[in-house]
């Protein structure tokens, strides 16, 4: 019976056997020229198989990859991208929402305000972070940080990674929809630069609440959609098992969204996905983020806001 690892998606499972063979040879205390040659052959085979798998992913497989259990989250990127980070808590109205991490950060010669979703890694952390699904106090905390950024003329950088806003009774009783709507309104007119990057899932209003920006970017294997493929399948076909078909129809992957001019940039991931090389992914993300900050901080703020509004108004192209 073949080994099954829950940290590997179904289409990644063929790589697991090769990885185990490479580890066995690498850990062999009695290495010979023959074993070195065998390891070199396995490494080459592994690279070829990885390229073959990840160069031909379907939209549904990319959706699975965006939710990968080992995919880096905001708190994984922060120490690898920013030179310093001071976290700030609370919305000054109700409480602090751990599903959103925010604070003051420095990256190269740029001082910024950072806002990002955080899903949580282990079971305890997932529950504490509510699986990255923010409640109204999370969006109000983000709004407070945005107004702070505007006051001190600091660019805002947001990392989006959420299945959506939390739909529970407690969130609704504290005016979830109003919190999201207010963020959309304020971000549309915020007098400072905004860069939004989808690092995993960009789900519905939960993503949009911190996703109105001058530059909207996606990591290569992230998704951005009004609804999850499973939710769409349940509504259209009354069958969540048709999620694969829904993923294709929704056009939620970075390549399709760039073609539809709904995003501005795709940030490349290492071969096999962001989870396979955090250092390389962080480097790619940092380079692109610094370049974007250099670009938009040179634009007059009034011109930038005008461009932002035109961008929003251009969404939703259609043919008669």
Report, as a whole number of angstroms, the end-to-end distance. 56 Å
CATH architecture of the largest domain: Alpha-Beta Complex
Beta-strand residue percentage: 15-25%
- What characterizes the major β-sheet? 8 strands, mixed
Shape: globular
Name the CATH superfamily assignment of the largest domain: 2-enoyl-CoA Hydratase, Chain A, domain 1
Q: Mean of residue pLDDT?
A: 90
CATH topology category name of the largest domain: 2-enoyl-CoA Hydratase, Chain A, domain 1
Number of helices: 14
CATH class of the largest domain: Alpha Beta
Radius of gyration: 21 Å
Instruction: Count all strands and give the number.
Output: 8
Helix content: 40-55%
Which residues form runs of ≥5 with pLDDT under 50? none
Write the H/E string, N to C: HHHHEEEHHEHHEHEEHHHEHH
The structural class is: alpha/beta
Number of domains: 2
């Amino acid at each position: 019976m073949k080994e099954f690892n829950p940290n590997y998606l179904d289409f990644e499972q063929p790589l697991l056997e090769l990885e185990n063979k490479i580890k066995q040879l690498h850990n062999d205390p009695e290495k010979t020229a023959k074993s070195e040659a065998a390891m070199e052959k396995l490494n080459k085979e592994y690279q070829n198989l990885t390229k073959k798998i990840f160069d031909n992913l379907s939209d549904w497989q990319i959706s699975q990859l965006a939710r990968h259990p080992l995919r880096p989250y905001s708190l994984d990127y922060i120490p690898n991208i920013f030179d310093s980070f001071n976290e700030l808590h609370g919305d000054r109205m109700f409480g602090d929402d751990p599903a959103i991490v925010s604070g003051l950060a420095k990256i190269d010669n740029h001082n910024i305000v950072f806002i990002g979703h955080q899903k949580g890694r282990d079971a305890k952390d997932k529950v504490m972070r509510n699986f990255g699904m923010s409640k109204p106090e999370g969006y109000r905390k983000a709004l407070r940080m945005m107004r702070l950024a505007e006051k001190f003329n600091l660019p805002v950088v947001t990392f989006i990674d959420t299945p959506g806003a939390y739909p529970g009774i407690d969130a609704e009783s504290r005016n979830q929809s109003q919190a999201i709507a207010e963020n959309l309104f304020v971000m549309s007119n915020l007098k400072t630069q905004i860069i939004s990057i989808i690092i995993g899932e960009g789900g519905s209003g939960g993503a949009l609440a911190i996703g109105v920006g001058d530059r909207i970017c996606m990591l290569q294997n992230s998704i951005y959609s009004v609804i999850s493929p499973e939710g769409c399948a349940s509504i259209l076909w009354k069958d969540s098992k048709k999620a694969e078909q829904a993923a294709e129809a929704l056009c939620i992957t970075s390549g399709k969204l760039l073609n539809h001019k709904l995003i501005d940039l795709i940030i490349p991931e290492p071969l096999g996905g962001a989870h396979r090389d955090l250092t390389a992914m962080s480097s790619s993300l940092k380079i692109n983020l610094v370049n974007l900050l250099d670009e938009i901080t040179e634009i007059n703020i009034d011109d930038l806001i005008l461009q932002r509004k035109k961008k929003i108004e251009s969404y939703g192209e259609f043919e008669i």
